[in-house]
Amino acid sequence: MSKTMIKQNVTVSLSQQTLRKVKILAAQQGSSISRLLAQQIETLVGQQEAYERAERQAALLLDQGFHLGGVIRASRDEWHER
Which helix (H) or strand (E) holds 76? Predict the structure, then answer.
């Protein structure tokens, strides 16, 4: 988490079966349900931000293009003359 972050509570509705399972999971990890959910949500947000950052970087690289060596010796029209 970042430095001083203001937190806000949210309400989540789960089925009784899922709630039972998540209580056990949180207890096994020595955590609370709230902290377990917060960690998972933070992970999802982080992954999305990383994906968007990588997507922007890839688009910039594609816009710049790549020089693969070689020399263009004829125009497009010359190549397609019949």
Answer: helix 76-79
